[in-house]
Amino acid sequence: MKASLLNKLDVLSDRFEELTALLGDAEVISDQTRFRAYSREYAEVEPVVALYAQLLRVQGDLEGAQALLKDSDPDMREMAVEEVRETKQQLVELEAQLQRMLLPKDPNDGRNVFLEIRAGTGGDEAAIFSGDLFRMYSRYAERRGWRVEILSENEGEHGGYKEVIARVEGDSVYGKLKFESGAHRVQRVPETESQGRIHTSACTVAVLPEPDEQQAIEINPADLRVDTYRSSGAGGQHVNKTDSAIRITHLPSGIVVECQEERSQHKNRARAMSWLSAKLNDQQTSAAANAIASERKLLVGSGDRSERIRTYNFPQGRVTDHRVNLTLYSLDEVLAGGVDAVIEPLLAEYQADQLAALSE
């Protein structure tokens, strides 16, 4: 393992001892804000330090076994050869685990997200495919125990959505969905096609982490135009009697968000402001992310919304992710919510890129 990584592990070990002492300090215990912060840090550092301690023990075992290679007893030397082989293999595995644990953590991985799906080229067929994608993500969310809440929808004339915006709430939502942003292409024979010809349509997906209070951008109320209108969404008769729907325009950027799914105008406004903050945050961070991705020649993780990331080919039952050259012949299972079959290889590739950068 590189000296720089070992030095980092030594620093973490020292910090772990500090945190252990701090969490036993009466002054810290009485300050819940500090206690919670130190507890979170302790929980992050403890498994790394424990694994590092195991690595040091195995290194000691290896040194002992190597010393036995010089023993005068041939049986002892034979045993030592086997022990050296086993401990070296253990060290390789432990070092790989530690390197993964030292990878930079994305602070947004644990956040909820705003999921935006928009029909692109292909007219009615693109809108129908938008509906297919939304169902796919909804079923995936159901499998993971997440909650999906539609904020805004514009239905297509023949089904699906010209645009659908949803908030997805649950454990590590952004960490799982962050590489879904981009252009998704479908190849199939539309139901309206009488000649049986295969058409190609496309939709764009954007996944934005929901900011917390500390991360939220401060927005000047003078920069906003707020319009209210009667909701056409769910909620029974009530939604048609009051101007509960909200449309907010951020004048400096031209970004428009709207929310109409809640009965309460106050709740719709809160959701719309949170979504606006997420979009402004994304606008600020995406340029930097693209620059880093370009510098490292990364395709996974660039987040370029115009990039064609995936093709769903219905005649062949095929899903292809173009970023990692992954092809699966399990289209039905993926659309039924089995998105992990695509997501996990992407996460593995991204992790490999990070490990390569860590070793530079």
TrEMBL record:
State the compartments where it is located.
Cytoplasm
Does the keyword Cytoplasm feature in the UniProt annotation? yes
Q: Which SMART domains match?
A: PCRF
- In the UniProt record, the signal sequence range is none
Q: Which keywords fit this entry according to its UniProt record?
A: Cytoplasm, Methylation, Protein biosynthesis
The record's GO CC annotations read: cytosol
In the record, which positions carry N5-methylglutamine?
Q237
The UniProt GO MF terms for this protein read:
translation release factor activity, codon specific
Briefly state the modifications made to the protein after translation.
Answer: Methylated by PrmC. Methylation increases the termination efficiency of RF1.
Where is it predominantly found?
Answer: cytoplasm
What this chain does, per the record? Peptide chain release factor 1 directs the termination of translation in response to the peptide chain termination codons UAG and UAA.
Q: Which family does it belong to?
A: Belongs to the prokaryotic/mitochondrial release factor family.
What is this protein's name? Peptide chain release factor 1
The record lists the organism as Pseudomonas syringae pv. solidagae
Gene giving rise to this polypeptide = prfA
